[in-house]
Design brief:
alpha+beta, OB fold (Dihydrolipoamide Acetyltransferase, E2P), 3 domains, six-stranded mixed sheet, 13 helices
């Protein structure tokens, strides 16, 4: 099918509806957003003079957080400022009701379906470069051994002085590329980013000593040219992405611990110990490794790291299998004095989502909880409301993954349509009565072997010829070359 004859944007909207979303922001919410005026609150602590910066994707406009750090003896004091979305969106208003229903921004590759009207998420409440914004600052101190402790959570006025990207900063931090122009022009910014990276490395090493899991999976992403998908490329995490990930994990742990210590109900982000641990043990045994009979994050991480070094080609498939056996994360209400569940994959006992209120409703709820606590005001949500919010956020997060997965299949089918007849290197990722499936190494796409599949098994490497694509259904068909 010719690329231009299949409307991917229309397909993404249909997929959203099929998965239970309402992709069109209601008129009353749009009217509310148009009428919102955000004025800097002079009563807030003024931190606009600090050299704040952000690091995000190349095309991100809904910026939720900015960072700053300073050395304090052998420790590093880190400040993470989170967009104060609550100051512009009151609970129970039309915008809030829509956000509560959708719960998440969905990035469908060819189109973004925002949780909040874009006038808010990409402008008034986005921590974009140059603008003064209200924020909630999460402050913690990182020790030399990577342990960290909370010092404060408070509101402040901030200004993003440098909007940077993972691709630009990552190569520079790793020593494989030149500094981005903004970084090259400022020795102060260079020093600031190096210090942040040092703090992040401490945090990461400490987490892995505790058993945090190492996946670093390659993600496929569409390459867009003039609004059309022209290719599928591999997106690999880099040091800049790790920096932000490490800071966000620490900030979310700090927030969860603070709410727990205050004795208030909140929403936690949990990943339980795998119920199918026995299957993970068996998977490791097939590869010559022995895991404990009871769930052990540290032992699992050591196994994953060793397999990545020993067999990088099949590591992608192994890590995907382990992720599926671990099960998805979920949102739950945490009550004062209760037995709080942790995040198995991050080796974190106390964890919430609080760092992306422009994109996730759970984070906006957490922001309201901590602001009410600081103001000595009544909790903005009852326990019953928190239960319902947590359940809906979990449901919609799973639905968003389905939208993204199905749209990636369609985009890959469109991108590969002009390459019918070409041959690719591949590895077998599935062999069931329903068919044999392969993952092509370059570009990183998956499809079904429709000819010559007899005798193939998981892990086999082979060459396949592309024999057809069907964008509407997201099908990519190969024949054994």
């Amino acid at each position: 099918m010719p690329q231009d004859s299949f409307d991917l944007v229309a397909a993404s909207r249909r997929e959203m509806i099929d998965q239970g979303f309402a992709p069109d922001i209601p008129a009353d919410a749009q009217r509310q957003a148009e009428g919102i005026r955000v004025q800097p609150d002079a009563s807030l602590r003024d931190l606009t003079g600090l050299l704040w910066s952000s690091i995000d994707n190349d095309d991100s406009r809904d910026l939720d957080q900015i960072e700053w750090a300073e050395r304090a003896g052998d420790k590093i004091r880190v400040l993470v400022a989170i967009a104060d979305v609550d100051s512009a969106v009151a609970k129970g208003t039309p915008v809030d009701r829509y956000a509560a229903r959708e719960t998440t921004t969905v990035y469908a590759g060819v189109h973004t379906f925002p949780m909040l009207p874009e006038r808010l998420s990409t402008d008034l409440t986005s921590l974009s470069e140059g603008g003064e914004r209200a924020s909630v600052v999460i402050e913690f101190v990182v020790a030399a051994d990577g342990s960290f402790g909370a010092t404060a959570i408070y509101r402040a006025r901030v200004r993003n002085h440098a909007q940077l990207t993972y691709n630009g900063v990552g190569a520079w931090l790793e020593g494989s590329g030149a500094a981005p122009a903004k970084v090259a022009a400022s020795p102060e910014l260079q020093a600031q980013l190096k210090l942040q990276d040092e703090a992040a490395q401490r945090l990461r090493e400490a987490r892995h000593r505790l058993g945090a899991l190492t996946f670093d999976r390659i993600e496929a992403q569409p390459v867009m040219t003039d609004g059309h998908v022209t290719a599928i490329a591999a997106r690999v995490s880099n040091r800049a992405a790790h920096l932000i990930e490490d800071f966000m994990i620490a900030a979310n742990e700090t927030m969860a611990q603070s709410l727990q210590a205050a004795g208030v109900s909140s929403i936690r982000r949990v990943v339980k110990a795998p119920e199918r641990w026995a299957r993970i043990v068996a998977l490791a045994a097939r590869l010559g490794a022995k895991l404990p009979s009871e769930p052990d994050a540290g032992a699992l991480d050591a196994f994953l790291v060793s397999r990545k070094a020993a067999d990088p080609v099949h590591y992608e498939d192994l890590s995907l299998s382990v992720l599926k056996l671990m099960g998805p994360g979920e949102y739950v209400r945490s009550r004062p004095g209760g037995d709080a569940q942790g995040h198995f994959g991050l080796a974190a006992h106390d964890y919430t989502h609080s760092t992306a209120p422009n994109r996730r409703f759970a984070d906006l709820v957490t922001q309201r909880l901590v602001k009410a606590l600081a103001a000595h005001a009544p909790a903005p949500y009852t326990d019953e409301e928190l239960d319902g919010i947590a359940s809906n956020c979990t449901l919609k997060e799973d639905a968003a993954r389905k939208v993204q997965r199905n749209m990636l299949k369609r985009m890959a089918a469109v991108a590969l349509a002009p390459r019918v007849g070409q041959t690719f290197s591949a590895v077998v990722t599935g062999a069931t009565p329903k068919g044999v499936f392969v993952r092509v190494l370059d570009p990183p796409v998956e499809g079904r072997v429709m000819r010559g599949e007899e005798g193939l098994d998981v892990g086999d490497r082979l060459h396949v010829k592309l024999i057809g694509t069907e964008p509407e259904r997201g099908f990519i068909d190969f024949g054994r070359a």
